[in-house]
Amino acid sequence: LAKVYHTHLCFASVYHAACNGELYSRPFIESFEETPMLVAVLTYMGYGILTIFGYLRDFMREWKIEKCHIAREREEQKDFVPLYQDFENFYTRNLYMRIRDSWNRPICSVPGATFDLVERSSNDYNWTFEYPGRVVKDVINLGSYNYLGFAENTGACATAAGEVTVKFGVGMASTRQEMGNLDRHEELEKLVASFLGVESAMAFGMGFATNSMNIPALAGKGCLILSDELNHASLVLGARLSGSTIRVFKHNNMQSLERLLRDAIVHGQPRTHRPWKKILILVEGIYSMEGSIIRLPEVIALKKKYKAYLYLDEAHSIGALGPYGRGVVEYFGLDSKDVDVMMGTFTKSFGAAGGYIAGRKDLIDYLLTHSHSAIYATSMPLPVVEQIITSMKCIMGKDGTTIGRSRIQRLAENTVYFRRRLREMGFIIYGNNDSPVVPMMLYMPAKIGAFGREMLKRNIGVVVVGFPATPIIESRARFCISAAHTKEMLDRALDVISEVGDLLQLKYSRHKVLPSLDRPFDETTYEENKE
Length: 531
Hints:
Blueprint: E1 2-6, E2 15-17, E3 29-31, H1 37-62, H2 90-94, E4 114-118, E5 135-141, H3 156-168, H4 183-196, E6 200-204, H5 207-218, E7 223-228, H6 233-242, E8 245-249, H7 254-267, E9 278-284, H8 296-305, E10 309-313, H9 328-331, E11 341-345, E12 355-359, H10 361-370, H11 372-376, H12 382-396, H13 403-425, E13 431-432, E14 437-443, H14 445-457, E15 460-461, E16 463-465, E17 475-480, H15 487-504, E18 511-513, E19 523-528
Parallel strand pairs: 5-15, 7-8, 7-9, 9-10, 10-11
Antiparallel strand pairs: 1-19, 2-3, 3-13, 4-5, 6-12, 11-12, 14-17, 16-17, 18-19
C-alpha cells in the first residue's frame, strides 16, 4: 500500500515535520522510526544473557578459575575504601571487552575520504592487542568529522600551516594573557566574528574546554540552566561546574522546554521562590548521536517570550549547514543577534582543533577576564591557527576561488543521496534529512561488533556506538558524510552496507522508500511493508 506523507503534517508514523510552520522558511523533516517490538525484546534478552554470563565469569575470577586482566585492589589494601568500584566496571569487563576491537583502531595516514589502518589482533579476547606490522590500505572513511574535506595533507591549508610551522614553530609556551598572544590569534578571532556576523569572538585551544570552562563563567548559584537531554558531555560538565540549578527537557521538544520555562517564571527558586538571576538554555546545532537539527526558530521564539538567554553549540553544524556554511542560524535564515552565546569548534568542518565563543563585544570582554580557559590555557598553536584561517577564508570565498562553496554544496548533495539510499534499502535511519551525521540502527549488542568487523573486512571504516553512550536498546552505527567522498565511494560503501545488512539482518524498517531518481523536496513516497 503506497502512502504519501507531506512535510506540512505535524505528526506522521515515521517523519515528523515542524508544527509551527509559520516560523520555518523551509521544510523541516526528521525521522525517528519506532523500534520494532520483536527487535526490542530480543535486544533486552541479549543484554540479559550477557549479564548472566558476566556474573558467572566474575564468580570464576573470584575463585581464580579464570584469569582477571582488569585493574584490582592490592591484597594488603582490601580493607581500605575501594579505589576501583567493582560494579561500575562490570560492563567494561564483561560486555565492552567482547567488542573492544571495534574502537580505538590506530590509523597511519591523513583521515580524509580514505585512510590507512594499522592491522592488529588479539589472542586474549581483546584484553591486549598485537601489531604484526601490516597496514590495510585505502579504507573508505565513514567515521571522521571531516565534513568539508579540509583534513588533508595537500592544498592551500596544508601549505600555509607548513610555512607557519617553519617560521614560528609549534608550541606557544605561554597563555594568551602573558606572552602567547600573537597577531595571527587576533586575525583569527576577527575572521570568526566576520564569518558569523557578530560583533566579536574569541578562540580556545580545546573544543571540550570551550564549553566546560566557559559555561561556569556565564552562570552560577541562583541561575537556572535548561539543558536538552541529549546535550554533549562538555555542555553537561560545564553546567554542573557552574553550580547552577539544572533542569533537563526532552530532546528537541518545545512543549517540554516551554513547560520548564513557564514553571521557572511562575515558581522561581526552590524554597525562597525568588526570581532566578538568569535562565540559560543550552542546545546544540546538530546532535552527533541522533543526527537531528535543533528547532532553532522555536527555541528563539520561546527565549524571547520568557526573557531567557540562549547558548548554542555549533560543533557539528558550523561549516556543515547553510548555503554559505555559517551553521544552523543561516540554515533557518535567522539573525545571529538572536543567539546570545554562539559556540563552535574547529575540529570538524575546518580540519583543525579548538573552539570559539562569539557574540556581543561586552560578552567577549567579560569572558576574557572571567573564563578559566582564557586565563590559564596555553595559546592555540600557530599551525592550527593557520589551518583554521586558511580553511575559513576558503569557505567564505576570500581566497578568490569557489572551492569552499562547491564543497558545501557537495556535502549537502552527498548527505541527501546517502540518507535516501539507506532508507530505500530498508534500514532505520535517525535524524534530519540535511544532517551529515547519519545514525543507522543496529539495536542488538552482538551486532555492534559484528557490523564493525564485517565492514572493515570489506575495507569500509565505520563508527559503532552502544550503551552507555546510547539508550540500551538503541545501539547504532554512525556514518559521517564528507564533501571529500565521491559518488563512487558512496556507492561502494552503500553496496557493502546493504550486503552486511542482509548478512546480519539489519533492515528493520517497516516503511521502505520507493526508489526514485528525482524526488520533490517537499514530498516523500512510502511503501508500507506487510508485517
